[in-house]
Amino acid sequence: MPDHVSASGPGPGATAVADISRAPGAVLAPGAAAFGGAEFTLIRPARARRRQFTITRAPRLVRRAIGPLAAIGLWQLVCSQGLFTSFEVASPVAVLDAARQLADQGVLQSNLLISLQRVTEGLLLGVGTGVVLAVLCGLFWVSEDLLDPVIQAFRAVPILGLVPLVIIWFGVGETPKVFLIALGCVFPIYLNTYAAIRNVDNKLVEAGRTFGLSRLGLVFKVILPGALPGFLVGLRFALVGSWIIDVVAEEINAQSGLGYLINQAQSTNRIDIMFCCLSIYAILGLAADAIVRLLERRLLVWRAAFSGG
Amino acid sequence: MTTMMNNLPAVQAPAGLAVHATGVTRSFQPGRGVLRGLDLSIVPGEFVALLGRSGAGKSTLLRIFAGLDPEYGGDVLVPERRAVVFQEPRLIPWQKVLANVMLGLRPGTDGRAGLRQRSVEALGEVGLADHARAWPATLSGGEAQRVALARALVREPHLMLLDEPFGALDALTRTKMHTLLQALCALHQPAVLLVTHDVQEAVMLADRAVVLTEGTISLDVPVGLPRPRDPGQPPFQRLRTRLLAELGVNEHASVQAAATAAT
């Protein structure tokens, strides 16, 4: 019996016995003539199906690493084939080389650290503010009516357009950078958390009320935990956004940081350093994503039963 | 203690009553009252089944009794200690089963440990003591509803409000739940208001069946059958037919109509 059974429609191969030889994938069931020669399909049990692809049996980490590793391999291949000059695209090997040079001079560590510090401070400030605003607007109609339109209006202002203004306000020290990063984090956190609070199942709130939960108890036991998945979505956006704003803020006026390094590399035509810094951003992005995934797994254990395994 | 629902000071209900509602009105659109001057009294320990067609206002009345709908007219006196079991279990998904049972309860004289103990016992009464540390998402529909029942019973309510609690369960589980509910009611003796559209369920469980039609009680009959009840017995069937007729269902006529339509 052929291994593969096709489920094709009423094709020409399905009508006559002689046609089977021309379409080796198709089988006719016993007594198929009674159905006018329609083909049968074998429904394989999940186990048999899965055994064919060993990749789905590999650990999750391995499976998730395959894509990025393949991309890096392709990148190296394209470079060593000479599709681009080394002044246009730096190969992964060159990037590693640049990283080693910078690390030897101590430049990489110090600038990475200062960027990390700015992003952390901005994130903390922005996430905190976003959560407070979301809780205020999510729980109280009055604050929603008063605050939400203002927040929405501010959200429409391009943050990068604020850069000149922020320099006038805060000068060129750390404050303007942290401020811009914080501002960039407020909105995704606010929007997602606020929507999640409003989407908490009213039936649960009602049940909590009938079982004697106080207002505060409802907020802390029902509403905020229910809004947690939405908050984590916002956190993902905020993490990515904070690095984007960090680069821009450091490229415009800074004496340190990854963005500053990129800027310097541009003026000295060091394409390898530029690619090195960009790669670090990519790795940081992956790390941030991993942190949120870990948080989700820890905080949303109760949802484990719903996820697709 | 009895509570007047409109946030007025606690008052004494007329002696020997668990629920005393008079002239209850409620409308969601002007001029189209769902409840139109409804009167209903329930004595302590009495099991009342409230029947009515879909949209008759059964759940509206239950929500008023539960304190979830203050926008009504009339006088409603209910015990302060009351508990609701909804059609859906409404367990908090991010709290484990035991925490759900204990939800909103304040420790009494026996402290937090005592509260825990009583909650585990309540879970034991519904046969789920070993599920105390499970997440609600891992329970079957019937199990989740039993947790909801335990959550109601642990409060030792003077009035239990059941809003079609078995409506979403399969027939087999429903029958088991009926037996369980009767045993628990015999044990705890709360007054019960069961909202249902299942006439069989009403006759099986209730001491008294009332039918809600056009916003008032149109029929109020004691069931008066010895327990355990057998749906095959003629008195059971007579009452069932009578209640169905009150709900606008004529069994024989509809069978004939269906037969005529088929031929």
Total number of strands of chain B: 10
Strand content of chain A: under 5%
Q: Which chains make the largest contact?
A: A-B, 24 and 22 residues
List segments of chain B where confidence is low: pLDDT < 50 over at least 5 consecutive residues. Answer: none
Which terms would index this structure?
heterodimer, A: 309 residues, mainly alpha, MetI-like fold, 3 domains, 68% helix, B: 263 residues, alpha/beta, six-stranded mixed beta sheet, four-stranded antiparallel beta sheet, globular
Concise summary:
The complex is a heterodimer of chains A (309) and B (263). Chain A is mostly helical and 309 residues long.
Describe what you observe in this structure:
- The complex is a heterodimer of chains A (309) and B (263).
- Chain A is mainly alpha-helical.
- Chain A contains eleven helices and no strands.
- Chain A folds into three domains: 4-41, no CATH class; 59-84; 90-295, MetI-like fold (Orthogonal Bundle).
- In chain A, 68% of the residues lie in helices and 0% in strands.
- In chain A, helix 9 (215-252) packs antiparallel against helix 11 and helix 10 packs antiparallel against helix 11 (271-299).
- The radius of gyration of chain A is 28 Å and the shape is flat.
- Mean pLDDT of chain A is 84; it is low at 1-23.
- Chain B is built from eight helices and ten strands.
